[in-house]
Each structure stands twice: as structure tokens, then as C-alpha cells.
Amino acid sequence: MEIGFLIKKIITFFIEPFGMVFTLFILGVFFLVIKKEQLAKKILLITLGIMFLFSYPPFSNYLISNLENQYSKFDYKHKVKYIHILGNGHNIDKSQPLSSQISDAGIKRDLEGIIIHKKMKDSILIFTGYSGDTNIPNAKMNSKLALALGVDKKSIIVNPKPKDTKEEALFTKSIVGKNPFILVTSATHMPRAMLLFKSLGLNPIPAPTSFYKDEFRGYFRTPLLWSFYKSQIAVHEYIGILWAKLKQKVSN
């Protein structure tokens, strides 16, 4: 793994909700051990407050909705040749069926892309994504699902090398150039993906899937682990968007 990529992952961990709560908790316990009770109490109270905020359903839904409402579901009036399905996570536990080895978000991305492909004559699916902590690239796992669902092998392009969205975009640019193509990814990830792809001179047509937003159900809600998870996803994307915009300003 490249040093720059590893450093980016480490920094991101500490400024996302889970890493933030984990770090503050450890810090609070440390000051408690060294007998600085007042400081420890303040830090632990802040930790509790952050946990509550990110676990509070209306707040997590607000974070998610601001991302997911930016792009609507795919409109079939568009007729293009290439459909790029961005990679997501997977495992290689052979005791599980293929449908369980691919992450939930990955399955939804694959299904959306394959459905669009089935409705678009002569279209080509592009799968990208590296192996992560496994020995099988995510792109290959997703292509296996497409083949299992009846997609012709000739209609699939696989690149197992890209480690992030920018590298995925650069690969697609080498194939489509400035021609329009369909971009399939999670609704939360779509704003950042569109920003990156467009910054490289590409013309993606968004096809968001794997939505997390809920209908508003009032403010009197108890904290939920599921809401904390949604906040984690949302903050990860906000950080990515901010980082992409900062890099654009520096390069300009």
C-alpha cells in the first residue's frame, strides 16, 4: 500500500465520528488514570455528547439527506454506451454465497448498473476496484456477479487496480474520453464522485443507488447505532468533498 494512501486513511479515521469518539474516550481515560479528574470529566462528557449527536436519527438523516438529495434516480431518456459501476467492499469467505461476499452497497450498485445495462442495447459495464485486504480485486467480484446474472462477458470491462475514486475516474477517462457515460455509485458517494469525475474533464450521468435517507418522523427519537453508522458514512463523504475542493484550489 502506498504511503500517501495509508496516511490519508489514518487521518480520515481520526476525524470521522467513530475515530473521534474513540480518541476522545481514550484521552479521557488517560487523564482519569493520571488523576486529572476535572479534565477527564469534561473530555468524557464531550465524548458522550458527540456520540449522542451522531446517533440522533434526525441529525444523521439531515447529514445523509443533504448528500443524497443532490441527484435523482437515473432517467432512462439517456442513451449511452458505457456504464461505470464504482467499487465497494467485499470479503472472500467461501462459506458464503457470492451475494453475501459483496457488501450491501456493492450489491445495490451492481444491480442498478446491470438493470440499466439490460435496458440499454449494446451497452458496456465497467467494473473498477482493488483487492483491499483480500487477494481478489473488488472489480472481479462484481464482474462475477454480473456474469452470474446473465451479462455477456464481452459486455464487461474489468480494472482491478484503482484504489480510490480518482483512480477509477482516470481509468474511465482513458476509455470514454469526453463522451457521456453512466456513473453508478451510492447516493451518498455520488456528489463527491461527480465532483472528481467532472474535475478531470469527464461527462458522467448520475445513477445513484443504495440510499440511506428516511422520512422525517419527528424530533423525539432515541439514539440508534444505525444512525451513528449513517453519520459515519455521511461525514466520510463530506471530508472527501472538502479534500477534493481544497486540492482543486491548490492546483489552480
What descriptors fit this protein?
252 residues, alpha/beta, Rossmann fold, five-stranded parallel beta sheet, 10 helices
Question: What do you see in this structure?
Answer:
It is a single chain. The chain is of the alpha/beta class. The chain folds into 2 domains: 3-68 and 223-251, no CATH class; 82-209, Rossmann fold (3-Layer(aba) Sandwich), CATH 3.40.50.620. It is 56% helix and 11% strand. The chain has 10 helices and 5 strands; from the N terminus they run ααααβααβαβαβαβα. Strands 3-2-1-4-5 form a 5-stranded parallel beta sheet, with helices on both faces. Strand 4 (180-186), helix 9 (190-199) and strand 5 (203-209) form a beta-alpha-beta unit. Helix 2 (17-33) packs antiparallel against helix 3 and helix 3 (37-55) packs across helix 10 (225-251). The mean pLDDT is 93.
Secondary structure blueprint with pairings:
Layout lengths: L2 H13 L1 H17 L3 H19 L1 H12 L13 E4 L12 H4 L2 H16 L4 E5 L9 H11 L7 E4 L5 H12 L3 E7 L3 H10 L3 E7 L15 H27 L1
